[in-house]
Amino acid sequence: MNPFSYGAAVKGENFYDRKEDCKRIVDTLAGGNNLVLYAPRRFGKTSLVFRAIEQLERQNFICVYFDFMPVFSPESFVRLYAKALAAKQSNLQKFAKTFVSIVKSIRPVLGFGQDGTPEFSIDFASSTVDEAVVSQLLDLPELMAKSSKRVLVFFDEFQEVEKLKGIYFEGLLRSKIQQQRRVSYLFFGSKTHLMQAMFNDKKRAFYNAASQMTISYLPEKDTVAFLQQNFAKKGIRLDEEMAQYIISATANIPHYIQLLAAEIWQAAESSASITHEAVNKSILQVLALKGDYYMELFDRQSNSKKQLLLALCRDGKNIFSEAYIRANNLPNSATLQRAVTGLTSDGIIDKTGREYFISDPFFKLFLKDFSL
User: Fold this and answer.
1) 301-371 has which fold?
2) Which residues have C-beta within 8 Å of that of residue 257, sequence separation ≥ 6?
3) How far is CA 175 from each of CA 63, 168, 169, 180, 338, rounded to the nearest angstrom?
4) What is the mean pLDDT of each run of 10 residues along the chain (372 residues)?
5) What are the b/e assignments for 265-287, b being 16+ CB within 10 Å?
6) Under a CB-based contact definition with an 8 Å cutoff, are residues 280 and 314 in contact?
7) Domain 18-214 adopts which CATH fold?
């Protein structure tokens, strides 16, 4: 079985390092405080959070993970959040009674899934989901908490609460969090700029609502060791130079390290040694598989965005300086700022410190043929 994992949260042996980051999350939430986690896309936020959940559950916390991405309306939030809360209950009948006592206008339904396990759902047939119903549902985590077990809620893709602005969800949730004493929250999402705006803008409900932390690149020495150990499982030799080459080709972003390593591992023969040629062949394989998508992605950008993307293939520092604009034949600062905002919002580019970069290193490699 391929030891390299990508495309989903990385767990078990495929998760490595981040020990200090994990400890920060565990200690903050266990201490009764709220936390917001920032990081560019594909840096392993969700995998890190699931590792923290594993540790916190061993400490007797009730951990509720909820992804806002599928939410598109108040009804979908109520249905999905109620289901996520119910999933952490050992007695669904008791939970249903608690639900009815709090959310009085919605009828819960207990049934069985396709595998025969008990399943909780709700019936909207004769009810309207409004701000009052959502408010009542947000009280449930506090009631789920026990004297021996506190509840921790993990809100993934939290920037998507923008979809619920019609019911003033941000302000509503903030007021609940301020009242709850046995529940702590972790907020994280893939659109860092939106998350930062939510928690750092004085006009927003979540201003200063949580402690803040960021994660960055993994230490290269740990990544080298991880790669070598996993290739060794197939009897494949990977020296440090080749490991560093893989890290460089993938911009040291965990998701893409695992993706490229998986391609190399799949193509390599047992007892082989990984060479530059083998790595380059696997890079070309990834580019071939995603080439049509990359071409379409580039084609649909405006000219100013295309110019910026090609410039970022060379350098991403001081992009608003006159020297950078002149050297890369970019539009004026106002137009450039709109291009940056658009590409960032779409997740195509991101920023660490003062440097902008193309989020997908393989897309960057694809674009280099255009930037010559």
Assistant:
1) Arc Repressor Mutant, subunit A (1.10.10)
2) 223, 227, 246, 247, 250
3) 21, 11, 10, 9, 34
4) 75 71 96 92 88 94 96 92 90 85 82 76 74 92 84 96 92 94 94 89 92 88 92 91 95 92 89 91 94 96 96 94 93 94 92 90 89 52
5) beebeeeeebeeebbeebbeebe
6) no
7) Rossmann fold (3.40.50)
